[in-house]
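User: hey, got a sec? need Dihydroneopterin triphosphate pyrophosphatase folded
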Amino acid sequence: MTRTAGYKTPVSVLVVVHTAAGEVLLLERATPPGFWQSVTGSLEPGETPQQAARRELEEETGLTTEAGEFRDHRHSVRFPILPAWRHRYAPDVRENTEHWFSLRLPRQLPIRLSPAEHRDLHWLGWRAAAAQASSWTNRDAILALGAELDAG
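Assistant: Yep! Here you go:
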């Protein structure tokens, strides 16, 4: 997919950061307040989803994939872009494709937030994190991961 000059590419990544014990990292967006999510972001020109996931992880948390077990779930979902964020995309773009990744850490590690993007963070059990996630795609990704964690 090509990027229209000045607009975001309608392809993004979601990276669920979690511990071996099933604690999930959620980040509160700077705007709008109260919007909780995992690591997310759009692909830059020429990036693969895996490259974007690694970049966004480091930009939003200070973590690198070497901190734990990085996994490409080889799963993507399409969703309508919320009206409040549609201005970031070319006028004819209405949907985004999101690719799912995860990073399993041995334990909670220090997180470096990017104040321009996020204002707070929580480590929550996966069920509580799924309930607090603001988007349905993020909730579904956490629930799928939680089911895998429970299955052992």
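Quick note: Residues 136-151 form the longest helix (16 residues). Let me know if you need anything else on Dihydroneopterin triphosphate pyrophosphatase.
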